[in-house]
Amino acid sequence: MKFKALYLGGVLTAALSAATLTGAAWAADKPAELKIGITTYSSGSASVFGVPARHAAEILAEEINAKGGVNGVPLKLYFIDEGAGLETLMTEYRRLVEDEGVEVTFASISSGVCNKMAPLAEDLEVVNFMWDCGTQRILEDDKYDYVFRTQANATPEVLAPLAYLLKANPDFKTIAVVNQDYAWGRDSWEIFSNALKIQRPDVKVVAELFPAFGAADFSTEVSRLQALKPDVILSTSWGGDLDTFVRQAKQRGLFETSKFVLPLAESSLQRLGDDLPEGVIVGARGDHYFLHPEMRDKEKFKTFNEKFKARTGEYPIYSAAHMVQAFAALEAVYDKAIKANGGEWPTKEQVAEAMVGLEFQGLGRPLVIREDGQAVEAQLVGTTAKRDGYNFKVIDKMELYDGKDLMAPVGENSLKWIAKFKPDFLSKVPSTSFSHK
Amino acid sequence: MTLNFAVLALLDGIAYASLLFLVAVGLTLIFGVLGILNIAHGSLYAIGAYVAATLGQWLVANGYNPWLTFPALFAGATIVGIVLGGLLERLLLQRIYAKDEILQLLVTFAVFMILENLQRMIWGVQPYFMSTPLNLLGNVSFFGINYTAYQVLFLPAAAIVVLFALRHFLRHTSMGAQILAVTEDREAATSIGINATRVYFMTFVIGACFAALGGALATPTTSLVTGMGANMIVLSFAVAATAGLGQIEGAAISALMIGIARAFAVYLSPELEVIMPYLIMVLVLLIKPNGLFGKVTARKI
């Protein structure tokens, strides 16, 4: 009796391990559809990014499916709302991977959410693209096999506007910051102020203001800034917070006394219209701009912009561009993995393996995934200007930076890397200049 | 400089407190009379703002005199208060006055969630704005600092008018007297012929109008975003609790305290700005558990 049970158990184990072995050694069966799980904000203040990105995802999936899918396999998208709260989000994510059989996930927008999703994806052994979150810490602090980032991170996104400021406006002596009181607002200031201290030890920080996330009123901050008259005012805020701050500052004449640096303002240009003055330094968390000087005449770029405009009434903002990059990486990695696998559909391990060194291109310059899973992405910074044909400010005096110059090397912590900068490092970072045409 | 800064902080604080008071006074009035802590107050605030913005945008887009955006703010708030507030009270709250407080809280919370989604369906997720009234009034200058006349003159004036109008209404009109009587003792009031059901309805609609008015008057100064109602309900609860729930003049004073303390924090210790309202609330409640003006016995207006 005992022996029989033992024997049966042995046979079962052998059969099971044989099944896993064959799965790993040979190709996976080509599925009927390639299921993609995407976390994005459809509620809450960050839906200013989440909703355009979702439109982008739907446009791209339609496009890919119209030409037969990825290597003949049509895409099916599943969206999860990041605004629903971490608990719900993680349960739903787990369900999509374990029950629905989602093969690749794109998570997430919020750095706070990414912090939780990255270990969960690793745990579930599902290939995950961090498609929009800012924090540089995740891939710097930990090593992941299944988690990749298909865009840059906070380090180049903050250093590029600083490099631009140092070159375009080198004479400033005082600076104030007004950032949202949460992870991104704090972390981006940490990077910026650390780099500034080394590049320009003479510059004095006259105020560090962190109004509540989602604050409806910045009047007091504006009053204090008017009294202080700093040469430069930095704000990495976004969405309704940034819009309100800009409008209140403009109404009360703050733009006339201080130079503004707004690293995320590309996403607010169309909403702010004439309320955003000329001469403001704006960034786009990458080289994202619907009039990208190197891309604007390319067919793929124009088609996407037109489709997006037709669908939403707006030009795409950076979060839509980040979504395009995630899809570009998806198509590229399956191509690469299928080729490496002799034309057979790849297993998830093979897909993850193919991610390292992957080259792909969205709406900006080409990107490449480093060995730590982090993509190297170019950065576009410019100055707002009024030009005919647009009822909002466009970006002029653009500088395009190569991502690799502004990124901590593989295995290095950004802040430690910044601490080693030479005093004139950032003002000498090479870039290509463009004007609005 | 030190004196100047104190004046500036005071101005900022008063402007902020005015809006806070307008929203909190509705919340505290409803609690004082109906005994319900209405979480959906935050939705009425947000929807009041959205409707006022939509009306104002429509007026401007169709070439009407931009000064009409001022009456549009009040019209928007009144419509929202009467229609939405009235429906809420008639269809929902009327059925739960006798129920457990926890249940009442949950019901109004559920309404809040539903309305929050409704806003997203109607107005989408992109920030909305309508700053015409603010631009029309222009700037005024104190110690070389520009302020918007809308924020430092118009809003405080509106808050003062509301405070005194409400006092007058409650103390010197028949409807006000009925409200006070029902608050004191519903049964006794009913036995002398006061229609308590009607009093509850009126009070809720008035409170709802104030919430919507707070939102409408905030519209020119800010971007309307999803979730703005949630932020406001938390803040106005802090104001109402600091004052003692049901205290109207108290709400004005605690709104001022919170507004001014917050402004001083921005100048002196910006790290404290975010927690200032709650810090004050906790300090007050530690010393006076019923709030600054709250009484231990019956609810009073």
From TrEMBL, chain A:
GO biological process: amino acid transport
Residues making up the signal peptide according to the UniProt record: 1-27
CDD domains assigned: PBP1_As_SBP-like (cd06330)
One Pfam family matching this protein: Peripla_BP_6
Keywords: Amino-acid transport, Signal, Transport
Keyword Cytoplasm applies: no
Gene3D superfamilies registered for this protein in UniProt: 3.40.50.2300
InterPro entries per UniProt: BCAA_transport, Leu-bd, Leu_Ile_Val-bd, Peripla_BP_I
Annotated Leucine-binding protein domain residues: 34-378
Keyword check for Signal: yes
PANTHER family, sorted: ABC TRANSPORTER SUBSTRATE-BINDING PROTEIN, LEUCINE-SPECIFIC-BINDING PROTEIN
Family to which the UniProt record says this protein belongs: Belongs to the leucine-binding protein family.
Protein name: Amino acid/amide ABC transporter substrate-binding protein, HAAT family (TC 3.A.1.4.-)
TrEMBL record, chain B:
Localization (cell): Cell membrane
Membrane topology note: Multi-pass membrane protein
GO molecular function term, any single one: transmembrane transporter activity
Pfam families assigned to the protein according to its UniProt record, in alphabetical order: BPD_transp_2 (PF02653)
GO CC entries: plasma membrane
GO BP terms in the entry: amino acid transport
Family (UniProt): Belongs to the binding-protein-dependent transport system permease family. LivHM subfamily.
Protein's recorded name: Amino acid/amide ABC transporter membrane protein 1, HAAT family (TC 3.A.1.4.-)
Organism: Microvirga guangxiensis
